[in-house]
Write a structure and sequence with these properties.
246 residues; alpha/beta; 8-stranded mixed sheet; 8 strands; 36% helix; 23% strand
Length: 246
C-alpha cells in the first residue's frame, strides 16, 4: 500500500532537507514550475483561475500566485498545507484540505488544473482525472506529471531513490500505481481531455551533483533535472478539455 503519511511529518524539511527524497521534488520543480508558467502564459494571455491537486508544500501554487493568477491548492496533508500557507508570499492562495476524488468546487470552475506528483500516489488515478475534468472549463488545460510503469522506472524511481537518498520512506512509491502514457491518455479521453503534449523528465545523470548524491546519499542544492524525448521514466503532459475556450 502506498505510504502518504510521511508528508504530514516533514514540516519545514519540505523546504530544507537534503537527506530525504523531498529534495528531489524541489529539484524537479526548478525546471517544471517555469515550464508550467510559460505554457500557461502561451495559452491564456490574462489572469486565470488555477487549481493544483495534491499541492503539497505549495511549490507550484505559490509561484503561480506570484505571477498574478487566482490560485487554489488542495491536499489531504494538513501539515504540508501549513508549510504552503506560510511560504505564500502573496498570501492570496486558497489552501484547502480536500479529497481529490470529490473536489469541493462546482463544474467548470477553473481555467487550468494541475496534478503533479500525485497520480502515482492514489489508488484510482482515473477518478482524480475525472474530477479534474469536471472542474475544468471547456478549452481549459490539465497539466500532469507522473511515472511510467516498466522495469527501468522501477529500478530508477523506486530502488534507485532507496539506494541513493537517505531516509527514503518505505513504500513512498508503489510500482503497480505507476501509469503508462497510453493508460493516462485513455483516462484523459474518458473525461473529455485530449492529451496534446507529452514530455519526458529525468535527472541529469552525467553531472557532478549526481555523483555527489551517489557518494553522500544526500541531494545537493545544485542537483538538476532535464526534459527528454524519452517517456521511459518520469513524464509531464498537457491535456485540453473539449470545446473552444472563451
Amino acid at each position: 500500500m502506498i505510504n502518504n503519511k510521511f508528508y504530514d511529518s516533514l514540516g519545514k524539511r519540505w523546504l530544507t532537507a537534503s537527506d530525504h527524497p523531498v529534495a528531489l521534488l524541489r529539484a524537479e520543480n526548478k525546471i517544471r514550475t517555469p515550464w508550467v508558467k510559460d505554457e500557461v502564459a502561451k495559452r491564456f494571455p490574462k489572469k486565470i483561475t488555477f487549481l493544483d491537486i495534491g499541492c503539497g508544500a505549495g511549490f507550484l501554487t505559490n509561484e503561480l500566485a506570484i505571477a498574478g493568477h487566482d490560485v487554489t491548492g488542495v491536499d489531504l496533508s494538513e501539515g504540508s498545507l501549513e508549510v504552503a500557507r506560510e511560504a505564500d508570499k502573496t498570501q492570496t492562495v486558497e489552501y484547502l484540505n480536500a479529497n481529490a476524488y470529490a473536489l469541493p468546487f462546482p463544474d467548470e470552475r477553473f481555467d487550468v488544473v494541475a496534478a503533479m506528483d500525485v497520480l502515482e500516489h492514489v489508488e484510482e488515478p482515473r477518478g482524480l482525472i475525472r474530477e479534474a475534468g469536471r472542474v475544468l472549463k471547456p478549452g481549459g488545460s490539465f497539466f500532469f506529471h507522473t511515472f511510467n510503469r516498466n522495469p527501468l522506472s522501477y529500478l530508477v524511481i523506486i530502488k534507485g531513490v532507496e539506494w541513493c537518498v537517505r531516509n527514503t520512506p518505505d513504500h513512498m512509491h508503489v510500482y503497480s500505481l505507476f501509469i503508462k502514457p497510453a493508460e493516462l491518455e485513455r483516462y484523459c479521453r474518458e473525461s473529455d481531455l485530449q492529451v496534446e503534449t507529452l514530455l519526458g523528465l529525468r535527472p541529469k545523470f552525467l553531472s557532478l551533483p549526481f555523483l555527489k548524491m551517489l557518494l553522500t546519499r544526500k541531494v545537493p542544492d545544485t542537483f538538476a533535472f532535464r526534459f527528454s524525448k524519452s517517456l521511459v521514466t518520469g513524464y509531464c503532459g498537457i491535456a485540453k478539455k473539449g470545446e473552444a475556450y472563451g
